[in-house]
Amino acid sequence: MTLSEISKLRLQSQKIEATTFTNAKEVVTWMGAMQAQDYSMCKWAIGQRMSDATEQVIETALNDGLIIRTHLLRPTWHIVSANDIYWMLELTAPRIKSSTKSRDKELGLTPEVINKSFGLLENQLSNDINLSRDQIAVILNDVNIKTDENRLSHILMNAELHGLICSGRRTNGKLTYGLLSERVPVRNSLTKDESLAELAKRYFVSHGPATLQDFTWWSGLSVTDATKALNFVSSGLVSETIGSMKYWLKDDYSTSSRETNSVHLLPAFDEFLISYRDRSAALELVHNRKAISNNGIFYPIIVVNGQVAGIWKRTTRKDRVKIENIFFAAINRKANILIEKEIEIFQQFLNRHAK
After folding, report:
1. Read out DSSP for 65-123?
2. Whole-angstrom Cα distance, residue 138 to residue 146?
3. Residue span of the structural domain in which 283 resides
4. pLDDT(257) > 60
5. Which of 183, 199, 214 marks a domain boundary?
6. For 312-333, what is each residue's pLDDT tens digit?
7. Of the listed ranges 165-174, 287-296, 315-324, the one predicted with least confidence
8. How many domains does the chain have?
9. pTM for this one?
10. Which of helix, strand or coil describes residue 215?
């Protein structure tokens, strides 16, 4: 198996190619969790992996609480199925909370301040009330809890990691927070070993071929726990070794159906790139800084036959959308035709027209 073959297999395992999913919850459940700090782009990430997707369909799934946007795995937003949110938080939140303790202390967010904030949030959000960041900031400021200098973000993330709040319904175009216990009333819990096994299974089946190092990065687990998790499920996987690296993937994978010509317009922070520690299978080192900024911003990418061939930008005005492609090198006519088709799909997803 070559690096190029690994990248093409990932297109299959991530359901970017040949998906059978018809709704957002199916996609997110398959993927385990999907990085989601860019709200509009994370909806397109889900849409890429299901048939007949529209932005509104995915927005509705978020509003209805079928899928939830919150902090877990690593210290950033992810989208996760409502069925999985409790056990994933129990497994991964402790390490995130530990990593933010020193910054919380610098900001003066003592346990007393955090607990007082939690009490206010629980009181103000109860009975299915959803509030925006700005509305929550006013409530906290009214009782002299400072929200400047990134304090509000830390308070809200702490509340998410403790399982108090999560994404609420989008209201008047603004993202909101609601109580997790009300948004997801059914609590699915697993033992730690069950959670480790389930997370490893989800990752290697949906993201494989991938290495233990990739899984450790994606999951936010310690090396010890990540290794234990892989050991739990390795008998149901197969492995391929390239150099010193061992890649794991589902045991029924097939290379016979790989497309010889494929083009995908993937969003910023898409799992196809960000979910691996080593991204060289899809992104040549010489192009790394063109696709990922020095401060870790992942740009929307154009993937041609499994390789990142460029980036794209969109500009929207009312019912119009303009797509600008920036290629790392010249591409052939066939790829150009396929890119135009991808742009049309994206426009249909947004329910907007080309400009």
Report:
1. TSEEEEE-SSSSEEEEETTTHHHHHHHHHHHHHHHHHHHHHHTT--HHHHHHHHHHHHH
2. 10
3. 263-354
4. no
5. 183
6. 999 887 777 889 999 999 999 9
7. 315-324
8. 2
9. 0.94
10. helix
